[in-house]
From TrEMBL:
Top EC group: oxidoreductase
Signal peptide: none
Native species: Rhodococcus pyridinivorans
Obligatory cofactor(s): FAD
Pfam family, one: Pyr_redox_2
Name of protein: NADH:ubiquinone reductase (non-electrogenic)
GO cellular component: a single term: plasma membrane
Main location: membrane
Keywords assigned by UniProt, alphabetized: Cell inner membrane, Cell membrane, FAD, Flavoprotein, Membrane, NAD, Oxidoreductase, Transmembrane, Transmembrane helix
Gly residues bias locations: 470-479
Length: 479
């Protein structure tokens, strides 16, 4: 199917992705004399920074993932299309997306590509079956099921070794996501689940945080890394640094130490938060424009976030590589707004060759470690502990999209932080097994194409390797 054009027509902007870059870019075009088509593979805008709270039963999916078309309801120049973009044709200026078996080709005059990044296993995609990452709603719900399911199985087991394996949780990658998740699994076991089982003591669960780097939160460094580490240790998280994961299976993982020795950790529930791999659409764009992609699959864009020879095509957010900017929500949001401004300026007759380069305004970064404790870095200012946590709370509420999401999140936080309860502790068998079942089904299809559908960015380029610390995680898996 082709999206129909009517003459005379307005300038057509296609935006790929409904994440931070895509949504903020679209919204920045609200008053422009353009027609915007936002194509995304999910129906929602996802606030990824709070995914770990969905995984650990604090927040519901609705709190962090409002429906994109509801968010854009009042923006009359914007249309939302559900579809997985499979092909971008720069020469003919079209984007082809697929939803189930229906293909849609959407023409564009300007294009903003904000398809984000998936998890990278540094060429070891087989680890994903046993150590899922955390990039999507499905990932978070699967993890919730795996975490809570491990406690349930331990309650049923009478075997000492099996119980120990079930009650050992391993998080690979001590970047902000890994730190936040390890902290929350520890709090879940120490506070929320305390006294709820009869055969096991959930507070004795082992939570291990592993990284190949020599410190937790290496991007923060020095004092903040030390504070984060101390807080985690007080919560009972075992921190194992300088440790590279060389193998993962259903019952555990193998770790290589700096001295070359190997050891095994028995653990049923493993989580991977160690690296990122940009959307494979980046490679397509690079091939067609002559741009380069870096080792994590990010497109090396020009200073105005466009592709060489294509001043109308912007690549933003986690997909772009420019001046070593980190993969942060603010980079994507500011990139989306910048691209929108350049499109509007071009319509007003501005010469694209004289654009001001994109300038990132660093509003700081933060990670919460536990209830009432976070670390935050804003320029040279470093905040930690309760003050850091208040700053974290405020910033996250500020950027959650929609008043009802803010309100429901605030209520869920009040429940989780001031009592031992958590509102979202339900998990189903399908949440745990659907991904693997779907992957097996796809592998059994005649063309065996496991890159179609939900896991397309996850699988990514098998050779892509993000250097330690470049994503929100920081570990490199060896082997
Ligand atoms: C668990 C986690 C925690 C994080 N915590 C923080 C934090 O605390 N602070 C911070 O600043 N940053 C954080 N980040 C990073 C931040 O979320 C990203 O930098 C940001 O989301 C990037 O925005 P984006 O628009 O480039 O991509 P995304 O927000 O990932 O959006 C990509 C969009 O593209 C869509 N898409 C992908 N492929 C296709 C396709 N082929 N066709 C159609 N649509 C497609 C996706 O469905 C999605 O809508 C975190 C990330 C994760 C995963």
């Amino acid at each position: 199917m082709s999206v129909e054009q009517t003459e005379p027509r307005r300038h057509r902007v296609v935006v790929i992705g409904s994440g931070f870059g895509g949504l903020f870019g679209t919204q920045a075009l609200a008053r422009a004399d353009v027609d915007v088509t936002l194509v995304a593979r999910t129906t929602h805008h996802l606030f990824q920074p709070l995914l770990y709270q969905v995984a650990t039963g604090i927040l519901s999916v609705g709190d962090i993932a409002p429906a994109t078309r509801m968010v854009l309801r009042k923006q009359k120049n914007a249309q939302v299309l559900l579809g997985d973009v499979e092909r971008i044709d720069l020469e003919n200026r079209t984007v082809t997306s697929r939803f189930l078996e229906r293909y849609t080709t959407t023409p564009f005059d300007s294009l903003i590509v904000a398809a984000g990044a998936g998890q990278s296993y540094f060429g070891n995609d087989q680890f994903a079956e046993f150590a899922p990452g955390m990039k999507t709603i499905d990932d978070a719900l699967e993890l919730r099921g795996r975490i809570l399911g491990a406690f349930e199985q331990a309650e049923l087991s009478h075997d000492h070794d099996e119980r120990a394996r079930l009650l050992t949780f391993v998080v690979v990658g001590a970047g902000p996501t890994g730190v936040e998740l390890a902290g929350q699994i520890a709090e879940l076991s120490r506070r929320t689940l305390k006294g709820t089982f009869r055969n096991i003591d959930p507070t004795e669960a082992r939570v291990v945080l592993l990284d190949g780097a020599s410190d937790v939160l290496p991007v923060y460094g020095g004092k903040l890394s030390r504070k984060a580490r101390n807080t985690l240790e007080r919560l009972g998280v075992e921190i194992q640094l300088g440790a590279m994961v060389t193998d993962v299976d259903a019952d555990g993982l193998v770790v290589k130490e700096k001295d070359g020795s190997q050891r095994r950790i028995e653990s049923q529930c493993k989580v991977w938060s160690a690296g990122v791999s940009a959307s494979p659409l980046g490679k397509q764009l690079a091939e067609q424009s002559g741009a380069q992609v870096d080792r994590a699959g990010r497109v090396e864009v020009l200073p105005d976030l466009t592709l060489p020879g294509h001043p109308n095509v912007f690549v933003i957010g986690d997909m772009m590589s420019l001046n070593k900017l980190p993969g942060l929500a603010q980079v994507a949001m500011q990139g989306g707004k910048y691209a929108a401004r350049q499109i509007i300026a071009s319509l007003d007759g501005a010469d694209p060759t004289h654009r001001e380069p994109f300038k990132y305004f660093d509003k700081g970064s933060m990670a919460t470690i536990s209830r009432f404790s976070a670390v935050a870095k804003v320029g040279k200012l470093e905040i930690s502990g309760f003050l850091g946590w208040v700053a974290w709370l405020f910033i996250h509420l500020l950027y959650l999209v929609g008043f009802s999401s803010k309100l429901s999140t605030l209520l869920s936080w009040a429940q989780a932080f001031f009592s031992t309860g958590r509102n979202e502790m339900a998990a189903t068998e399908q949440q745990v097994f659907a991904r693997i079942a779907l992957e097996h089904m796809r592998a059994d299809e005649p063309d065996g194409d496991s890159q179609n559908g939900e896991s397309a960015t996850k699988d990514g380029d098998r050779s892509a390797q993000a250097p330690a610390g470049q994503g929100r995680g920081g570990t490199q898996a060896a082997g």
